[in-house]
């Protein structure tokens, strides 16, 4: 995937006109074709660099496979449940969303649902339209003094909590990532799930649909809109018992009211219907369903259920905001300004920062050097960052090393998005460590060390200015750091061999190739390494090979 080369973007769902306008103003060609069939989408996507969807388009593995030039899928909304993130990652396609675009709209709908449950407003309104005047039937409850359990304390969850506190509700909640100290700042007391169930008069869920939230438990993952949830399951995954299921309903206060404006499947619909029929659940408000639209109408038709056709983001403000945000994110990507809302390529987002670009180039170069010198693209690779400036750099340097190790292999295009996944599939295990101690420099820049455990192959480099340089190779230190950029010839020869340089000079003259730089290492066991920067690769090394122990060319 070539960053900054986006040209054509397909919008396959209905979005605010500002989305198209911003993309066009950013120099991109835009095709806006909402409502495409699967077959039509497969045809239209072939020559597109970007795809923008809302909820209707399902970006499945076969759609991604048909997209020969696709670089990015942008979802104008929260979550990416309709995108096969694993398939996109494998192909090196970036997936991004707009995690803040519909937060307020979804939070306000949730609050409206809570109010509607408390006062049975939809049922009373429907009764009036039938010509009835049934005041006694629709006796409600006050929210003041009631306890609201908020499961998921990301942006939407906290917006709901603060709004319902204005009605005098006590808010308790749970989130495996947000700390109790943080949630306390917006008035939510965090408790273990087992303590939450029996305390709540109302429960509202604000998590993504993951195996952990569609299953019987919840394992740690970041808050619903904080941008760091694990990728959703493949689109073919079979739904299982939700976070609210028969077991958890049995632990709840009798008559508990449940709201789900997040994702269908987080609340087990079968368990919810059973709880409603038994009276264990006093009412439910649903904006989302496991299957949309729902074919089984038992839940929809239950008298104590309020439901909407997935309206959480259906406000003019949210649609405009999401359309604007995803368009600006894609234009920023196309122009090299940066990345936001990234779901599967956090390492790639670092590639736009001027200070990290040369380090990423260095990591890829060291990986390429070791793959060639070590003659292996399988087994273990150890990446070690040294020095406090690189304390957080492993997250983006490790995929870059993997890119170098896989370069020229059987895999298709390897990018920072898919490098670690493809490395794993190729039998390459890449591990990362860090030490604040930088023994070889003044500590102001740091060092990157890449090695093949169990072998003598080890490369150490740093960045000088904006240039990646090699400091050490296989235990031998260079007298002056050797630049790793462009066409590079690397060879090992006897330090006492006088004819190597004249032969190399003759080859360069014969090929019309200019010598850009020459750096040699100290001698170990009578041999030394040389790194030669060239204006172009040499096509024939046959005259040089008899005079060296080993030689290889790279384009870095």
From TrEMBL:
Any GO MF annotation of the entry: NAD binding
D-isomer specific 2-hydroxyacid dehydrogenase NAD-binding domain segment(s): 112-215, 241-312
Domain D-isomer specific 2-hydroxyacid dehydrogenase catalytic: 9-344
Keywords from the UniProt entry: Acetylation, NAD, Oxidoreductase, Phosphoprotein
Residues covered by the D-3-phosphoglycerate dehydrogenase ASB domain: 357-439
Any coiled-coil regions, as ranges: none
Quaternary structure (record): Homotetramer.
Protein name: SERA dehydrogenase
């Amino acid at each position: 995937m070539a960053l900054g080369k986006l040209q054509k973007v397909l919008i396959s769902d209905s979005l605010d006109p500002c989305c198209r306008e911003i993309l066009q103003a950013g120099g991109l060609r835009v095709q806006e074709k909402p409502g495409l069939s699967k077959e039509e989408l497969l045809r239209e996507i072939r020559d597109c660099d970007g795809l923008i969807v809302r909820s209707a388009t399902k970006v499945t593995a076969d759609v991604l496979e048909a997209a020969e030039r696709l670089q990015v899928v942008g979802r104008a909304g929260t979550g990416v449940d309709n995108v096969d993130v694993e398939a996109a990652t494998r192909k090196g396609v970036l997936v991004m969303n707009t995690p803040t675009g519909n937060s307020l709209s979804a939070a306000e709908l949730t609050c409206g649902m809570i109010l509607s449950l408390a006062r049975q407003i939809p049922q009373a309104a429907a009764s009036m339209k039938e010509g009835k005047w049934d005041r006694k039937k629709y006796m409600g409850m006050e929210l003041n003094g009631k306890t609201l359990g908020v499961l998921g304390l990301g942006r939407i969850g906290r917006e709901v909590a603060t709004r319902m506190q204005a009605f005098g509700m006590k808010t308790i909640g749970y989130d495996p990532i947000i700390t109790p100290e943080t949630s306390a700042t917006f008035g939510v007391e965090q408790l273990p799930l087992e303590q939450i169930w029996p305390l709540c008069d109302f429960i509202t869920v604000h998590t993504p649909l993951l195996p952990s939230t569609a299953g019987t438990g919840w394992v740690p993952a970041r808050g619903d809109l904080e941008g760091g949830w694990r990728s959703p399951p493949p689109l073919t995954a079979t739904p299982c018992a939700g976070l609210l299921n028969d077991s958890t309903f049995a632990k709840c206060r009798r008559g508990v009211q449940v709201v789900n404006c997040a994702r269908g499947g987080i609340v087990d619909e079968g368990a919810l219907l059973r709880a409603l029929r038994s009276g264990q659940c006093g009412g439910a408000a649903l904006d989302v369903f496991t299957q949309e639209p729902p074919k089984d109408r038992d839940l929809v038709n239950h008298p104590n259920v309020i439901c909407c056709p997935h309206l959480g983001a259906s406000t003019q403000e949210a649609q405009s905001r999401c359309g604007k945000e995803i368009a600006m994110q894609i234009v920023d990507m196309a122009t090299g300004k940066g990345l936001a809302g990234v779901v599967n390529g956090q390492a790639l987002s670092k590639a736009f920062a001027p200070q990290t670009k040369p380090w990423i180039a260095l990591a890829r170069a060291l990986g390429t050097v070791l793959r060639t010198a070590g003659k292996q693209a399988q087994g273990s690779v150890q990446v070690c960052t040294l020095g406090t400036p690189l304390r957080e750099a492993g997250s983006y340097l490790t995929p870059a090393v993997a890119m170098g190790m896989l370069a020229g292999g059987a895999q298709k295009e390897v990018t920072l998005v898919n490098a670690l996944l493809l490395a794993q599939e190729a039998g390459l295990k890449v591990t990362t460590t860090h030490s604040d101690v930088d023994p070889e420099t003044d500590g102001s820049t740091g060092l990157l060390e890449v090695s093949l455990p169990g072998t003598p192959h080890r490369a150490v480099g740093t960045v000088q200015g904006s240039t990646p340089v090699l400091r050490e190779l296989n235990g031998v230190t260079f007298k002056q750091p050797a630049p790793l950029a462009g066409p590079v010839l690397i060879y090992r020869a006897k330090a006492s061999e006088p004819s190597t340089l004249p032969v190399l000079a003759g080859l360069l003259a014969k090929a019309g190739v200019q010598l850009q730089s020459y750096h040699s290492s100290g001698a170990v066991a009578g041999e030394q390494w040389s790194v030669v920067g060239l204006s172009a690769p040499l096509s024939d090394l046959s005259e040089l090979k008899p005079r060296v122990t080993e030689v290889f060319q790279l384009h870095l």
